[in-house]
Amino acid sequence: MVETATRGGGEERSCADLRLPTAAVDLDSLREFLSRHSRLFILTGAGVSTDSGIPDYRDADGEWKRPSRPVQFRDFMTDPAIRKRYWARGVVGWRHLHGAMPNDAHRALARLERSGRIELLVTQNVDRLHQAAGSEAVVDLHGRADVVRCMGCERRIPRADFQVEVVTMNPAWAELGARAAPDGDADVANADYAGFRVPDCAACGGTLKPDVVFFGESVPKERVQRAMQGLAEADAALVIGSSLMVYSGYRFARAAAELGKPLAAVNLGRTRADELLTIKVAAPCADALAACVA
Ligand SMILES: [Zn+2]
Fold this sequence. Notes:
Elements: E1 2-3, H1 15-18, H2 28-36, E2 40-44, H3 73-78, H4 80-98, H5 104-114, E3 118-123, H6 129-133, E4 138-140, E5 143-150, E6 156-158, H7 159-169, E7 179-180, E8 186-187, E9 208-212, H8 221-233, E10 236-240, H9 247-258, E11 263-266, E12 279-281, H10 285-292
Parallel strand pairs: 1-12, 2-3, 2-10, 3-4, 10-11, 11-12
Antiparallel strand pairs: 5-6, 5-9, 7-8
Helix pairs in contact: 5-10
Zinc ion (ZN) binds next to loops.
């Protein structure tokens, strides 16, 4: 394994310490990897969108860094109080997510696809910024935050329309400011959620849920199959901006290794697949990709 940024012997390091100037990071190994493999399987995570102002969930050691744990699927589906809190915070977070624009990392990957080098791009992000940058062969592994789905009748509505409905029902919440999080959630301190009103499905009265895969929820099988097929048809795999701490992403790194495909990663900090990597570049995604993709 070639590690282009050395890690100290056990001392604590923050993400900021790892933000080395691009010049200090040897990107030649990544350039060579990209030129040697003509059909790439790409797996992206939150690190690709941080330069679009969408914060990452995890620090350089792969540890959870937000004050509250994410909502679990079972809790969301069974507890109305959890749903009130989720959507109340989501009203604030959505505005931030909705306004985010693609960055150099998304644009570099769209260029790579246009030059015929990408077999499939699988993203763990729900922000749709790869598509906004022009990528077409994309699997949204964990769904998309711009769509709301009825868990009763499978009807899907745009999140923007749902937002209008929620804000109309809860005008006071529209004014709240808060820190935004990657899934459109937000950290709203000391808020009283009891009075928040959550709309149900207009067609069947069912529970509405963002069309994203929650923690504790399975990724739909056909989505995993499509991603695995892309991996099988690629000649190498590249992980970008993901610590792979969640199994749904890690399984592709493991499958790449089992299939004997070369596996590279661009990520600040540790990944769960470090020992499987042939190349690891510890650099910000946008800088590394902009420098390595013509
Ligand atoms: Zn419904």
